[in-house]
Amino acid sequence: MTSTLAPRATRSRSRRTLAYIGLSVAAAIVGLLFLLPLWWTFVNSLRPGAETFSYLNPLQWQTFFTLSPTLDNYLSLLSSDLGRAIANSLFVSLTTVVIGLVICAMAAFGLSAIPFRGRGALFSIVILSFLIPFDAISIPLAGLFRDWNLQNTFTGLILPGIGNGMAIFLLRTFFLAIPGELVEAGRLDGLGWWGIFRRIYVPLSRPALIGAGLMLFLFQWQAYVWPLLMGTDDTHILGPVALSNLQGQFNVDYGVMFAASIVLTIIPLAIIVACQRYFIQSVSTSGLK
Predict the structure, then answer these.
(1) What is the pLDDT of residues 259-287, one digit of tens each?
(2) What is the band of 234 on the pLDDT scale with cuts at 50, 70, 90?
(3) Measured distance CA(90)–CA(102) in Å, rounded
(4) What per-residue confidence (pLDDT) applies to 289?
(5) Residue 245 neighbours by CB under 8 Å, 6+ apart
(6) How open is the CA angle 89-95-101, to the nearest 5 degrees?
(7) According to CATH, what is the number of the domain 73-286?
(8) 49 close to 255: Cβ distance less than 8 angstroms
(9) Concatenated DSSP letters for 107-163?
(10) What mean pLDDT comes out for the span 92-113?
C-alpha cells in the first residue's frame, strides 16, 4: 500500500511544480508585454527625434536598444514649455497633498470620533461624492470657477482636489480602528478635540495618511479635463495638457515628447514604489474594522 502511494505523491508534487513553473513563465511573459511599450518609449527618449521610427519596420534589436544614448532630449525638456508644465504639475500635486491631507484628516476625524446628529447622513454624502466621476461635473464647475475669476490660477487648479471623498473614507475607516480608551484618556488629561486629533490620531495614522496622500497626488497628477478647462495660458498649463498639445502640432520632436512622457511616468511610479508598503498597510488595516 505504501509503495503505491509514494509514486502518486511524487506525481502530484511534479504536477504542482510544473503548474507553478508554467504560471511563473506566463506571468513573466505578460509582464514583459506590458513593459515593452514603456521600454521602447524610454529608448527613443535617448535618441534624436528623427530616429524614432527608423527601426520599426522590420523589428530588430535596435528597436529596443541603442548603442549611442544621449540626454539631449531631457536637456531640451528643461528649457521648453513642457519642462515648465511638468514643474507646474509637481507644484499643484504637492500643494494638493499638503492642504488636502489636513482637510481630509480633520473631516475623517470629525466623522469618526466626534458624535453629532446627522453624522451618518453626512458620511453618506461623502461616499456619494467619490462615486460620481469628477469629469462628469467638471464643465459646470469650471463655469462657476470662471465666474469667481479662478481660471488660469493655481488656486483654481488646486481647489477641487483638496477635498477627496475616497481619502476621507480611507482615513475615517482607519480612525475607527483606534481604541476609544485612548480618546477617553486624552479627555481625562484635559485635551480638547483638537489636542486629541493632533496628539493621538495623527501620530497613530502614519500609514493611512501616506495612503491618502498618494491618492490625492495621483488624482491631481493624472488629471486632464480639469487642467484643460482651467489652465489655458502658458503660465498655468500642466504636464498632461502640454504633452497633448505637443502631439497636435505639425512638427513634433518625438524625442522630447517621449522624454516628457518618461518623466510624467517616472515621478508617480517612484512615489508609488516608495509608499507601496504604507499604502498596503493602510488598506489592510482599514479592512479590519
Answers:
(1) 888 999 899 888 888 877 766 665 555 54
(2) confident
(3) 19
(4) 45
(5) 237
(6) 130
(7) 1.10.3720.10
(8) yes
(9) HHHHHHTS--TTHHHHHHHHHHHHHS-HHHHHHHHHHHHHHTT-TTSHHHHHGGGSS
(10) 93
CA 89 vs CA 86, 129, 263, 267, 272: distances in Å: 5, 24, 11, 11, 17
Query: What pLDDT was estimated at residue 64?
Result: 84
CA 61 from centre of chain:
33
State the residue for C-alpha cell 506571468: 27
- Give the chain's length: 289
What percentage of the chain has pLDDT greater than the value 70? 90
Q: Is the peptide bond before 7 cis (omega within 30 degrees of 0)?
A: no
Give the burial class of 213: count Cβ atoms within 10 A of its Cβ; 0-12 exposed, 13-18 middle, 19 or more buried.
buried
Written as nine digits, the cell of 50 is 528623427
Contact between 197 and 104 (Cβ < 8 Å): no
Nearest-angstrom CA–CA distance, 260 and 266 = 10
Q: Is residue 6 scored above 80 in pLDDT?
A: no
Q: Report d(CA 49, CA 254) in Å as an integer.
A: 5
Distance CA 43, CA 66 (A): 7
* Rg (alpha carbons) of the chain, rounded to whole number: 25
How far, in Å, CA of 98 to CA of 104, rounded? 10
pLDDT at 287: 46
Looking at residue 50, what DSSP letter applies? G
Count of other CB atoms within 10 angstroms of residue 236: 20
- Domain ranges, ordered by start, for the chain: 2-64, 73-286
The pLDDT of residue 83 is 84
Task: Report the 10 Å Cβ neighbour count for 163.
Answer: 16
